[in-house]
Design a protein that fits this description.
21 helices; six-stranded parallel beta sheet; alpha/beta; about 20% strand; about 675 residues
Length: about 675
């Protein structure tokens, strides 16, 4: 999990907390919430299902009512819990066809065992196969015995200026807070620190880079103009403007470092393709780096199709990690000789065996940020290439300027005219059966659908099972003529790619997935996305998920299913119901986020911060941005004694980034 030292372990913060509150009467157990209930077993405990998935069922009764409770793969509970007496259970309440039930709860038997945990906050860590939450808790407790203020990298004057908790107190409260307020104060300190380190690293890399001279002679080519005229659609005004900015950079005095921000479906890919064409038609090479193999393959197939269809005299090359040694060797030869002009792939593009003939442009996504060292590694003996970073995360411009301080920013803020706006609806769980009937009808018309399940936070290994159980249930619901597939984060990359490719070929009609789908392939035939427990996602993330549909010529639909009755949730989801504009939604997300959320509702897709969230923590991001500027103005190399630890930490971070890239 990337934990190699005691320091790493101390910084391995929980991803959420279990907060053990007083038991509620069964009649007040709300759908979609994790609650504690107390009662006695009513009737017999049943074990049913197949050998691979045995389901244990009991009914728990108190003075106010009865609730059904199920566990997966725990048949032994029949003998342990069947002895009578008071039982306390803590778990998530969900709605199934036969009403509310509690799924896979934690058991406190005898009931007195609950007293030790009542009113406490128990950390829940991200895990991997063979590792339990208790094992991490024990290791972290040991590590914290060695934590002292000498490990603090934050200069004293900054900690005092912002009134942050002392390091040792803060780091203990990050893992084992006595109450919610202590955790929130501790988290503020480490969010600020994370932003400060990131921004200082960025600015240090930018300083060392300066503005490199542009050594590539990139003239306007008639083939490019012919290609643009022959396209079956006109570029939008925003696309034309951004293309002029990119072309101006590539033909200017300095090498380009530009970010193109554009909403899902705004037409960023064709702009990237124009940049690659400009490089290729001038005798140079251009590379496009995708976050996953399945997406790289799709970009490659689309590029080959465009080159052939418009008779452009360039050869495309695919380079991914899963290719055979022979395929890679042959690809390397064509790249090194210059035979291939447009190279598309994954991380394999920047591995040492890939030697470019004359690389002028690298197009990448927001997860792959290149400093000068990575550019030098890419260029080999050549000159520093132009860099174009594509982002589908609509971050408000004020924050983008801080986060992407090393890049010039272009925004595509207009959708192509032929795009049909997605029709949205926000409904409660009583609408689920109707939603299934609607999806069935769409599949009968030849379309495809996504269903998104949130990660199951309460259980250590239930994420996969939750999606698998849901897809089994949905498969029964849909009948034998409809294939339901399943995708989750615990699958190997090859398995994920195989499922996505099968969905792309319409061999799977309905795909049940966690949010790993966010970086998926383009499936124009998918017209419905149903998002379960929509209240558990951030607005910007919901908007990203919605962008999986609406990519073809058919009308698309997004159904947000929410179990929450709160006015706050209704207000948040209503914004998505009313608008398909990602930049407006990101701004509203920023306005509605309060510091009261323990972790923010995790965003993904935006620079991978450990505890920080650019929406919830926007105020701290701005403070860190101002402080980074002041620090470098007064002490450019961070040479002062009070900045020494911070400087060493930043150097280590920059080296780790370089190492990751070369690895």
């Amino acid at each position: 999990m990337g934990v190699r030292t005691v320091g790493d372990l101390i910084r391995y913060y929980p991803r959420t907390f279990d907060i053990y509150e007083d038991p509620v009467p069964i009649s007040e157990a709300e759908e979609g919430k994790t609650v504690t209930i107390a009662g006695s077993v009513f009737g017999r405990i049943q074990v049913s299902g197949s050998r691979s998935l045995q389901v244990t069922t009991l009914y728990l009764k108190d003075l106010t009512g009865t609730i059904k409770v199920i566990w997966f793969r725990m048949p032994f509970l029949r003998s342990t819990l069947g002895k009578g007496g008071m039982l306390i259970l803590r778990g998530r309440v969900v709605r199934r066809r036969d009403g509310l039930l509690m799924e896979h709860p934690e058991i406190f038997y005898p009931a007195s065992r609950y007293e030790d945990k009542r009113s406490t906050m128990q950390p829940v860590y991200a895990l991997t196969g063979g590792l339990t939450n208790n094992a991490v808790i024990r290791a972290v407790r040991q590590a914290l015995e060695h934590a002292d203020d000498s490990m603090d990298i934050l200069p004293e004057h900054l900690a005092a200026q912002h009134g942050f908790l002392p390091y040792q107190e803060a780091v203990c409260a990050m893992h084992f807070p006595e109450e919610k307020g202590a955790f929130i104060r501790a988290r503020e300190r480490f969010v600020y620190e994370e932003f400060l380190v990131f921004l200082l690293s960025l600015r240090q890399m930018k300083e060392s880079e300066g503005r490199a001279e542009n050594h590539f002679i990139l003239k306007d080519r008639p083939e490019l103009e012919r290609f643009l005229k022959a396209l079956p659609y006109d570029l939008t005004g925003a696309q034309k403007k951004v293309w002029q900015e990119i072309r101006g950079d590539m033909q200017g005095k300095h090498t380009m470092s530009r970010l193109v921000q554009g909403d899902v479906g705004s037409g960023k890919t064709i702009i990237a393709f124009l940049g690659l064409l400009l490089a290729g038609l001038n005798g140079y090479q251009g590379a496009l780096m995708a976050p996953t193999e399945v997406l790289a393959k799709q970009h490659y197939e689309n590029t080959v199709r465009l080159l052939e269809e418009y008779r452009l005299p360039l050869k495309a090359e695919l380079l991914t990690g899963s290719m055979t040694a022979k395929q890679k060797r042959e690809a390397y030869e064509r790249i090194a000789s210059g035979e291939s002009s447009v190279i598309i792939g994954t991380h394999a593009l920047i591995q040492e065996k890939a030697v470019y003939h004359d690389l002028a442009l690298v197009v990448t996504d927001e997860q792959h940020r290149f400093g000068v060292k990575q550019r030098e590694a890419l260029a080999g003996k050549g000159f520093l290439p132009h860099i174009l970073v594509m982002s589908a995360t609509p971050i408000p411009r004020t924050l983008a300027i801080i986060l992407y301080g090393d890049l010039d920013i272009s925004v595509i803020d207009e959708m192509p005219k032929d795009r049909l706006p997605i029709k949205n609806c926000v409904v409660d769980t009583g609408y689920r059966e109707k939603a299934y009937r609607f999806m069935k009808k769409q599949v009968e018309q030849g379309r495809q659908c996504y269903v998104i399940c949130p990660m199951v936070e309460e259980s250590e290994n239930l994420e996969a099972e939750n999606v698998q159980d849901y897809s089994r249930m949905l498969s029964e619901e849909m009948g034998s003529g409809i294939t339901v597939g399943c995708l989750h984060g615990k699958m190997k990359q090859q398995e994920k790619d195989a499922v996505m490719e099968a969905f792309g070929r319409n061999e799977i009609q309905i795909l049940v997935s966690t949010t790993v789908i966010e970086v998926g392939i383009d499936v124009p035939n998918a017209t419905v996305i149903l998002i379960e427990n929509a209240e558990r996602f951030g607005l910007a993330q919901l908007h990203q998920l919605r962008g999986r549909v609406g990519r073809g010529r058919h009308q698309s639909y997004c159904i947000f299913l929410s179990a929450s009755k709160s006015d706050e949730t209704k207000e948040r989801l209503d914004i998505l119901n009313r608008s398909n504009d990602g930049f407006f939604i990101a701004g509203e997300d920023l306005r509605l986020r309060g510091p009261g959320d323990l972790f923010g509702i995790r965003q993904s897709g935006i620079l991978d911060f450990q505890v920080a969230d650019v929406f919830q923590d926007a105020a701290l991001l701005k403070k860190a941005g101002e402080d980074a500027g002041r620090l470098l103005a007064s002490d450019p190399g961070l040479q002062a004694p009070e900045h020494r630890k911070l400087r060493r930490h930043i150097e280590q971070k920059i080296n780790e980034t370089m190492l990751e890239t070369t690895l």
